[in-house]
Amino acid sequence: MIVEIATSLVGGGIYGFSYLFKNATGNDHKKIQLIAKNCGLVSRDGKEIRIHRRRGNREWSEYVYQMPHGLSYKQFKEKLDNFQDGLNIKKTTLDISFKDLKDLSLQRDIIDQVKNLLYKKRTLKKEVEIKFDGMLKFRVYNEPLTKNYTFEEATTQKIKGWKVVVGKDRTGKRILVDFERTYNMIVSGTPGYGKSTWINSSINTLLKNHPEHVKFTLIDLKDGLEFNRYRNLQQVEAFAETSGEARDALKKTVEKMSKINAYLKANSFSNVKEAGIKERHFVIVDEGADLADDDECQGYLTDIARKGRASGIKLIFATQYPTSQVVSSQIKRQCMGRLSFVLDTATASNVALDQAGAESLPPIEGRALFKELNLIEVQTPYIDDRAIKSIIEPHITIRPRKEDHDEQRTSQTTKARKHSLELEETRLS
After folding, report:
1. pTM confidence score
2. Could you tell me the domains of the chain?
3. Run of H or E residues at 5
4. pLDDT (tens digit, 9 = 90+) per residue, 351-375?
5. Which of 19, 69, 303, 351 has the fewest CB neighbours in a 10 Å radius?
6. How far is CA 384 from CA 166, 199, 388, 423, in A?
7. Contacts for 248-252 with beta carbons within 8 Å, 24 or more apart?
8. pLDDT tens per residue, range 105-141
9. Nearest 10 degrees: CA dihedral of 4, 7, 13, 15?
């Protein structure tokens, strides 16, 4: 009986699919062409976009078009909402494919499976990306990018090296940034959309994975509230919450960098990795706009961005106000990694990413655009206070850090390690 019902359902589904295809109600390509035409995206001589090829998988379908002369990619990009809304208009006939039917399992709960499939298809919201590389590409994702990505989920799979999780992309892939290759980052975004949360996630990832070898200089110019919980970490060499304190902290970091580089030069090494030095030092600035008028701080930040690569010193520069005055061209050119949350204008997006896009992000906390070579939309991980507390508590000391650290250094006999003994004993920090 169950098999007969299942067979009838599958047969009916196949018939329904054939009807869908015949009537083009289940064909996104036809919809894209129609939407383009209705939006006036037709050349003066009446030519429309013409399909060149299509491909896809379980998560997405991609349609590649030849674009008529006289039209631009920008014109199509400006109509993204029209294409996305048009592809999501619900019809009485549901968009069910052969693959959907194939995924059904002929078990006793076949009826529930079909009900779930129908419900999913009714509530499905497709998302669209439009790109251009000589051909106009529409990529249609069958399901929207997740709005919920936790730190626990992001770090379940082991993270090797000096990498942190940027976020999850539309296909469910975990996107990482490797600070051994992408040495510096600019992080921007309107308050309340996840910029500081991502920084917290990154600090805790580095601390969790490299407690013995990571060092931090934390500059928190929002009254010290965001980074205050890290103030007494053993790994924090400097903490600043005013411009004056930031100047001193950055100066110490530059002096440390100069000592490391001198050591490398004297021993014919080109960088800390080649020298076998395991320590990495992260300078994290939040909010960078408060240092925009301080020439001395700007000089130190530029030096760190330009020369920190060899000495293992990384810069993460965060700001709510990505303008050319806040993010200098010198710093910008040295920051290959860019992460931008929602911004208010295309001008701000161009400063942050070298292209528009961040102004069009949905108002979802944690939603961002990540750029190294290519631009990717991601959902960044959310870390809660409980997770932060569990990671940082073992590393907090309430003793004065510098004096205690110096006393400990002079009283201990340091174990010999490859090329790191001299650096630790001379207190390059």
Report:
1. 0.78
2. 2-141 (no CATH), 151-425 (3.40.50.300)
3. helix 2-23
4. 999 998 999 898 999 999 999 988 9
5. 69
6. 16, 12, 6, 36
7. 249/217, 249/219, 250/217, 250/219, 250/283, 250/297, 250/300, 250/301, 250/304, 251/296, 251/300, 252/217, 252/429
8. 766 677 766 666 565 555 567 889 999 999 999 999 9
9. -100
